[in-house]
Design brief:
Layout lengths: L1 H12 L4 E2 L5 H4 L10 E5 L4 H14 L3 E4 L17 E5 L6 E5 L4 E5 L4 H10 L2 E2 L12 H6 L7 H4 L2 H4 E7 L5 E4 L12 H5 L8 E8 L1 E2 L3 E9 L2 H15 L3 E8 H10 L13 E9 L3 H18 L4 E4 L3 H12 L1 H8 L2 E2 L2 E3 L5 H15 L4 E7 L4 E7 L6 H22 L15 H7 L2 H14 L14
Parallel strand pairs: 2-4, 3-4
Antiparallel strand pairs: 1-2, 5-6, 6-10, 7-11, 8-9, 8-10, 12-14, 12-15, 13-14, 13-18, 16-19, 17-19, 18-19
Helix pairs in contact: 1-3, 9-11, 10-13, 14-15
């Protein structure tokens, strides 16, 4: 039966685009190397029509599919399981920019288009596409939408969901929903677009999307500030909203230990102001008037912040090169943490006002449970999203720490998130890594509705089974 299916898939996409032998690590192993699955085959269609035919063939054969973009996810949601019976459907060949509509301020792209390509295409046309994250050179827009990715400019522009106006989707039955209109108003029933965004490939396969564009700002300035506590970082955020308004496009917080790791593992990078302060904040001001106006706003903000004591020192990038260097430090934290050794990652969201208490309380609980544990705390404070990561004690065995203490650490953190009315996944998704935790922390009513939607749209459980929801 499998040989018959493989031959059908070869007939659809071409023999060279059905991979069933050789080294399939790039598709079978997740980016963090936390898990490795086994695929029946990796299929690489070149068009939406081919995707639809592949889905029909797999559904007829009773074989499940795992849609995959750049495979940069962090929750093991885009790799096959270990059975060797799943087909990985890679969208990487579907990477065209179909249209830039300047009057409508939209761009229509295929799901396999690299995020950086969207940014560069928009810039060449004189526009801004604001979704920005560390993996933008390799992640794809289909994956960004499937996980409702966030990034560094959510505070102004929102998650991937807020940036999307329309989708083209192949359903679990191999039908094509053509919803790429790009309308900003369409009140004709259920919002199917938002249903598929964030569903992690469990309800259908996103093959193309119409995304919003924005006017290019006249100036983008970056500042780096030392703050004496997380409470002061929250105060600074309030001042930034007050003084910069909609110009505040980025607000990142970084703990001292996270920055120490960057300085240790990437000594060529200059990390400012971190040695004498527990936290640093990275701010971005996008101004549609002029650079002079943007700089005046920043200087006034920092002057007030220094007077109020919520900032102890600050630097403003003098040019684009310096700004890129500051952002590069922030983006290097996950890489530096990986260099330090295996670690336990958390992607959580808490109401901004409650983050200081959450961090203080949870830090204390973890230190009490595991003396010497090190906190790599950083993230998008502007929208309440923290990457609250836990590193083994300095002299510890990192593999043993991950193997023996991960469940304990996760329980401490996620129980604290629940006490603070937060979410255990802000922008990375659930995948298979958080499947058990979602069952425990999500409302039974919400889980019941989610299962009803899954059953209605995918009764054969063809699409990415065992991810987000249990089969």
């Amino acid at each position: 039966m499998n040989n018959e299916l493989l031959q059908t898939l070869r007939n659809i996409t071409g023999t060279s685009h059905v991979l069933s032998e050789g080294d399939l690590t790039a598709w079978e192993q997740d980016w963090r190397k936390r898990a490795r699955g086994k695929a029946l085959a990796v299929v690489r269609p070149a068009s939406t029509a081919e995707v639809a035919e592949v889905v029909k063939a797999c559904a007829a054969a009773g074989v499940s599919l795992v849609a995959q973009g750049g495979n940069t996810g962090l929750v093991c949601g885009s790799i096959p399981d270990e059975t060797g019976k799943q087909v990985v459907l890679s969208l990487q060949r579907m990477n065209a920019v179909r249209e830039v509509d300047a009057a409508n301020l939209t761009m229509t792209v295929e799901a396999g288009c690299i995020l950086q390509t969207l940014q560069e295409t928009a810039e060449k046309a004189g526009f801004l596409f604001p979704l920005s994250l560390a993996a933008e050179g390799s992640c794809t827009i289909g994956g960004n939408l499937a996980t409702n990715a966030g990034g560094t400019q959510v505070v102004r522009y929102g998650n991937a969901r807020e940036l999307c106006l329309g989708l083209e989707v192949v359903t679990p039955q191999g039908e094509i929903w053509e919803g790429l209109s790009g309308l900003r108003k369409d009140n004709t029933g259920y919002d199917l677009r938002d249903l598929f965004i964030g569903s992690e490939g469990t309800l259908g396969i996103i093959t193309s999307a119409t995304m919003k564009l924005y006017p290019m700002p006249a100036a983008q300035l970056t500042a780096w500030a030392a703050v004496p506590s997380m409470e002061h970082a929250v105060t600074l955020l309030g001042l930034a909203h007050q003084h910069l308004g909609a110009g505040l496009t980025g607000f990142e917080v970084m703990g001292q230990f996270a920055l120490r790791l960057v300085a240790k593992h990437f000594p060529q990078q200059r990390v400012p102001l971190y040695l004498d302060t527990p936290f640093c904040v990275l701010l971005e001001n996008s101004d549609h008037e002029s650079e002079t106006h943007a700089r005046e706003q920043f200087e006034r903000l920092l002057e007030v912040a220094l007077e109020q004591g919520c900032v102890t020192d600050a630097v403003v990038a003098e040019n684009l090169t310096q700004a890129h260097q500051l952002w590069h430090v922030r983006e290097s934290i996950p890489l530096a943490q990986a260099e330090e050794g295996l670690n336990i990652k958390h992607d959580i969201s808490i109401s901004v006002s409650r983050i200081p208490d959450f961090v203080r309380e949870t830090d204390e609980l973890l230190q009490k449970a595991i003396p010497g544990v090190r906190m790599v705390n950083f993230g998008h404070l502007g929208d309440g999203n923290l990457h609250y990561n836990v590193q083994a004690p300095a002299a510890g065995d990192t593999k043993a720490f991950l193997r023996e203490r991960e469940e304990e650490v996760n329980t401490i953190v996620y129980d604290a998130v629940a006490r603070f009315d937060g979410s255990i996944s802000a922008e990375h998704g659930v995948g298979s890594l958080k499947l058990d935790k979602l069952e425990h922390h999500k409302s039974p009513v919400a889980l019941g509705m989610m299962r009803a939607i899954k059953q209605a749209l995918d009764p054969q459980n063809v699409m990415n089974p065992g991810r987000v929801l249990r089969a």
